[in-house]
Specification:
single chain, mainly alpha
């Protein structure tokens, strides 16, 4: 005889509720909030949001499963919200681009866009990347203080505007992207908050900035699309290549709206790179850096048998990443190079 015991499904680990004190991070610095959740509860976290539960996945193999292996079982463009279905905030900004679409549309767009990122085509951009990087570095002067975060944001903006739209960093297009690109405004800010749908519809300053920014981006991108179509779209920039792309089955091109959605998706993916949680930045320089170098058995963590590389700071870098600039103790391979605590 075989006895069977029914067990209730186990919930993922996670907080019973989101404390009020965490709402500012959730709305203004989501990467920081989710990094803290992952650090506290592990690679799979259940995050309770009023009306639904979100599941945060930070395990690389599971992410591969969701985004690639079993992507057909997951939707990108919608979240449940009461009756029926509603758009996500990213869909309000990016439309039905490769990031936010799913089903047949996603598969069609992936077939159309994948050739644009062939290894040889990506390699053809390297000379441009080097030239832009050199131009940025040439502005720096010996002895001058340089805000590297600002410089790197400008560098990535220069690279993506040249690659996607074939315009310079000094152009009106680049200036519009820099000032109008919605970051964490409007629906992007309120998506996870209680009563977020209602807040996103109110004439709040954050919502006004979001819709004005989107309108400014649309004006620029649709104008560039019109200009490219009139000139025959013969260039090698990604916008021209999107206009040249044809469906292998039907021979049909993308319409202007779809080209706009894909261009903005590429723009956000390439430019919106500076909002990194402190924990992610520290891991990039330690654990992930060691893996990239192939030295994960020697450096990147404090464990017996590994090299004694230690940097101590006076503040908490998980609260303020700038604390890492004030080192009070430095040890490399067991040798102390700085010790201000003596």
């Amino acid at each position: 005889m075989v006895n069977t015991v029914s067990r209730a499904p186990r919930l993922m680990p996670g907080p019973a509720r989101i404390p009020i004190s965490a709402l500012p991070d959730l709305t203004r610095r989501p990467p920081f909030f989710f990094a803290r959740m992952s650090e506290q509860y592990g690679p799979f976290v259940r995050v309770p949001v009023p009306g639904r539960a979100l599941h945060l996945v930070s395990d690389p193999e599971a992410i591969q499963e969701v985004l690639v292996t079993a992507s057909r079982f997951y939707s990108n463009d919608i979240l449940p919200g009461g009756r029926g279905r509603r758009q996500t905030p990213l869909t309000m900004l990016l439309g039905q681009g490769l990031l936010t679409s799913d089903g047949d549309l996603h598969r069609r767009q992936r077939r159309l866009i994948q050739p644009l990122f062939h290894r040889q085509r990506i390699a053809s951009y390297t000379d441009s990347f080097v030239r832009i990087s050199r131009d940025v570095a040439m502005r720096w002067r010996d002895g001058a203080e340089v805000d590297m975060l600002r410089e790197m944001v400008l560098l990535t903006l220069a690279v993506v505007t040249r690659t996607i739209f074939d315009v310079s960093i000094d152009s009106r297009v680049a200036d519009t992207i820099r000032t109008a690109m919605p970051r964490n405004d409007g629906p992007l800010r309120y998506a996870l908050m209680p009563a977020g749908q209602m807040l996103a519809r109110l004439p709040l300053p954050s919502n006004i900035r979001f819709w004005r920014g989107r309108a400014a981006l649309d004006e620029v991108v649709f104008r560039l699309i019109s200009e490219r179509r009139l000139s025959g779209a013969r260039g090698g920039d990604l916008l021209s290549l999107l206009l040249q792309a044809r469906d292998a089955g039907t021979g049909e091109p993308m319409d202007d709206r779809q080209v706009r959605d894909e261009a903005l998706t590429l723009l956000m993916a390439g430019h919106d790179t500076d909002d990194v949680a402190p924990l992610g930045a520290i891991q990039a320089g330690t654990l992930n850096g060691a893996k990239v170098l192939g030295w994960q058995g020697q450096i990147g963590a404090l464990k017996p048998g590994m090299l004694a590389d230690i940097v101590a700071v006076s503040g908490n870098p998980l609260v303020d990443i700038k604390a890492t600039s004030d080192a009070i103790f430095v040890m490399r391979s067991g040798t102390v190079y700085k010790n201000d605590r003596r």
